[in-house]
């Protein structure tokens, strides 16, 4: 099963830039999108359905903001919209699809870049999300988790171009780095690092300013984390920086 995560920074905008043509060519079994920025009523998913996908949406209540969507060619056993906390579910942060032997959790984490209040909200979310995932992993009815999406966090200095200048920037604060370390230590595998080791210069987001993408001045904010039980089944993982419909690029993982 090949699974792709992609923050499209507005689904309708990405479709207008040729997203559907790329999906038809790449043909992932499951496609997890973040920051769809459209309500259920305003979104036309017929293009995905023509490609053989079932569509599941969890938009934000606020128009033109946040939201996640998952498109799958494999029929899920269960679909769970949200995480049970209205302050996060109103923003469309989590959508989970359970398949026979894996649970794909699509998440769009807060960025914290708009000011101290939202950064505090983000930190609260991170700690909630860690507890939420721990509860899911402890629940014997949930298959092993594969957690993908825009985490809006980097783990270590090799995950962004200029770590020294961003020591306290949202996405790379000491508290966020410690959270990521603790989260992985709970029994999760960073699928990218599992396959690529300490390779540098691999990013999934670039600012629109100053030709950042062309110069590869970026951050690795988009991740696939796997339950340690899935590690023997991880056939590959990577980023697709040459795919351009957004300020992010797709992140993919393949599970046997």
Radius of gyration: 17 Å
- For the residues shown, what is the average pLDDT? 96
Distance from first to last alpha carbon = 6 Å
Number of helical segments? Answer: 7
The percentage of residues in β strands lies in 25-35%
CATH architecture: 4-Layer Sandwich
Residues in helix, %? 25-40%
Number of strands: 14
Helix/strand class: alpha+beta
Spatial arrangement of strands, main beta sheet:
3-4-2-1-14-13
Q: What do we call the CATH homologous superfamily? A: Endonuclease/exonuclease/phosphatase
- As for the number of domains, it is 1
Shape: globular
Unreliable stretches covering 5 or more consecutive residues: none
CATH fold call = Deoxyribonuclease I, Chain A
Structure commentary:
Its EC number is 3.1.11.2. Pfam families: Exo_endo_phos. It is an enzyme of class 3 (hydrolase). Its cofactor is Mg(2+); Mn(2+). Belongs to the DNA repair enzymes AP/ExoA family. The protein is α+β, with helices and mostly antiparallel strands. The chain has a single domain (about 1-255), classed as 4-Layer Sandwich (Deoxyribonuclease I, Chain A). The chain is about 25% helix and about 25% strand. It is built from 7 helices and 14 strands. It has helices spanning about 10-15, 20-25, 45-50, 85-90, 115-140, 175-185, 190-195; strands at about 1-5, 30-35, 55-60, 70, 80, 95-100, 105-110, 145-150, 190, 205, 220, 220-225, 235-240, 250-255. A 6-stranded mixed beta sheet has the order 3-4-2-1-14-13. α5 runs parallel beside α6 (about 175-185). The protein is globular and about 45 Å long. The model has no long low-confidence stretch (mean pLDDT about 95).
């Amino acid at each position: 099963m090949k699974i792709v995560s992609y923050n499209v920074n507005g689904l309708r905008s990405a479709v207008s830039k040729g997203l559907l043509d790329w999906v038809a060519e790449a043909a992932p079994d499951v496609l997890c999108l973040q920051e769809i920025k459209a309500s259920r009523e305003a979104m036309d998913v017929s293009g995905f359905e023509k490609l053989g996908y079932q569509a599941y949406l969890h938009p934000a209540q606020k128009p033109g903001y946040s939201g996640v969507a998952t498109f799958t060619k494999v029929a899920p056993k269960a679909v769970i919209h949200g995480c049970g906390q209205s302050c996060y579910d109103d923003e469309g942060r989590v959508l989970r699809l359970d398949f026979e032997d894996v649970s794909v959790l699509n998440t769009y984490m807060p960025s914290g870049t708009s000011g101290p209040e939202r950064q505090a909200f983000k930190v609260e979310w991170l700690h909630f999300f860690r507890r939420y995932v721990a509860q899911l992993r402890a629940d014997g009815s949930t298959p092993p988790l594969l957690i993908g999406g825009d985490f809006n966090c980097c783990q270590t200095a090799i995950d962004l171009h200029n770590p020294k200048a961003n020591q306290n920037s949202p996405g790379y604060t000491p508290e966020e780095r410690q959270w990521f370390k603790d989260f992985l230590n709970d029994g999760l595998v960073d699928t990218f690092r599992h396959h690529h080791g300490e390779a540098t210069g691999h990013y999934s987001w670039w600012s629109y300013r100053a030709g950042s993408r062309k110069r590869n001045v970026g951050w690795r904010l988009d991740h696939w984390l796997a339950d340690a039980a899935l590690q023997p089944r991880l056939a590959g993982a990577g980023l697709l920086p040459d795919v351009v419909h957004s300020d992010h690029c797709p992140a993919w993982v393949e599970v046997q």
